[in-house]
């Protein structure tokens, strides 16, 4: 979802507690409309089970329900958990999300705290936690989960090597681990065995409301901006990696975007079909910062593909992102969704330096775009004698280069 610097290396929750639902990390290659099929369970031993079929989070938490800029088509999503006693007819948890925020003036952290105060009691009750224990668990859990949301999607651009930051984060997630353990122990009627599959599912479900409010905060703060589609020069780089997703799916890019407080130095954020960038609209190959902005887009469009695989459902992606964040030991860089994005943004490196950068210049000459189409190869070949070739949709673009220019 984000491209930024790694915040810290912290003690993983799964080492603290041994809790984690074991899911396949790879997303499907084609669009689907439900998180059920995207979060595929691996084989789990009988002693590692939670007697619960799924977590269901219905509703729409958008603050801009009548605006085309608001997250749309948010219905429901499920996070499957292992059920030892039933199959598809098993029970589920319905998490009632808080009412929409009426305006964009409330601080994001306060709005997230309100959301958690309203949704967490319902979740705990349906997890089987005794009613008498819920107020204390909510009081203890809300500030921890609020800070965890900000850490997972907002603070990666902070000072990752600052000892004070590292210490604070380690303490935060150790505290969350202890809180989750209390929740699982309280839900005795649902848990079989050590229930080491429960922790990350509880974490993802508990923090989802705050994640959705972050998406709303971006929509509110950029409501007056005019988003752009990708340009042909950007498509030159995006197409060989991501195909025509930008135009097929109506991806919109907000340049010079307003970032809610707390989002540190994150260069880009993807929320559904919207990509928010701090950078200005350097959208032509002649623009001074074109290559840097385009490389950020390669990262963010990987997240667009991840959203597409989940039907652009904010609930489903939020659950998946938060679950993988927990599964990675609360490490932004080790989150499998971020690992995929950082890996793919490097695929076109050969086209971001000379002589690779010369292809887009020649491609912009009269008639070349129309005649050859977009690149389909991610790297160029070098037959020799200072000649270089790049495979395009309708043929091959060949250039001959000197020391500093090509033709």
Automatic annotation (TrEMBL):
Keywords: Signal. It comes from the Eukaryota. Residues 1-26 form the signal peptide. The keyword Signal applies. This is Uncharacterized protein. It comes from Cladonia borealis. The lineage of its organism: Eukaryota, Fungi, Dikarya, Ascomycota, Pezizomycotina.
């Amino acid at each position: 979802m984000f491209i930024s610097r790694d915040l810290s290396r912290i003690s993983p929750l799964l080492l603290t507690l041994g809790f984690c639902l074991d899911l396949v990390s790879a997303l499907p290659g084609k669009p689907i409309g439900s998180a059920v099929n995207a979060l595929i369970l691996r084989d789990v031993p009988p002693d590692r089970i939670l007697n619960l079929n799924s977590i269901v989070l219905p509703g729409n938490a958008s603050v801009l329900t009548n605006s085309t800029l608001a997250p749309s088509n948010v219905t429901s999503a499920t996070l499957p958990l292992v059920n030892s006693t039933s199959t598809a007819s098993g029970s589920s948890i319905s998490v009632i999300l808080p009412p929409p925020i009426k305006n964009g003036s409330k601080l994001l952290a306060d709005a997230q705290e309100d959301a958690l105060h309203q949704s967490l009691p319902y979740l705990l009750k349906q997890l089987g936690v005794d009613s008498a224990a819920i107020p204390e668990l909510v009081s203890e859990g809300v500030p921890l989960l609020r800070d965890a949301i900000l850490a997972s999607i907002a603070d990666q651009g902070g000072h990752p090597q600052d000892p004070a930051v590292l210490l604070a984060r380690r303490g935060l997630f150790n505290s969350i681990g202890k809180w989750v353990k209390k929740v699982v122990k309280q839900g005795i009627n649902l848990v079989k065995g050590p229930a080491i599959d429960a922790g990350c599912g509880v974490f993802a479900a508990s923090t989802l409301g705050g994640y959705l409010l972050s998406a709303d905060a971006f929509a509110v703060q950029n409501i007056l901006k005019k988003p752009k589609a990708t340009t042909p020069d950007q498509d030159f780089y995006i197409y060989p990696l991501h195909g025509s997703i930008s135009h097929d799916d109506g991806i919109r890019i907000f340049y010079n975007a307003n970032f809610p407080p707390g989002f540190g130095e994150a260069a880009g954020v993807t929320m559904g079909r919207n990509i928010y960038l701090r950078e200005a609209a350097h959208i032509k190959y002649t623009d001074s910062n074109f290559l840097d902005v385009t490389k950020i887009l390669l990262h963010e469009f990987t997240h667009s593909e991840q959203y597409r695989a989940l039907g652009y459902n904010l609930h489903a992606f939020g659950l998946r992102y938060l679950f993988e964040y927990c599964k990675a030991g609360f490490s932004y860089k080790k989150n499998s969704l971020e690992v995929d994005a950082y890996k793919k943004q490097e695929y076109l490196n050969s086209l971001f330096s000379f002589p690779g950068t010369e292809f887009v210049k020649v491609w912009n000459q009269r008639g070349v775009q129309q005649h050859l189409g977009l690149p389909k190869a991610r790297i160029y070949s070098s037959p020799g004698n200072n000649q270089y070739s790049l495979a395009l949709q309708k043929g091959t673009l060949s250039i001959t280069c000197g020391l500093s220019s090509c033709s």
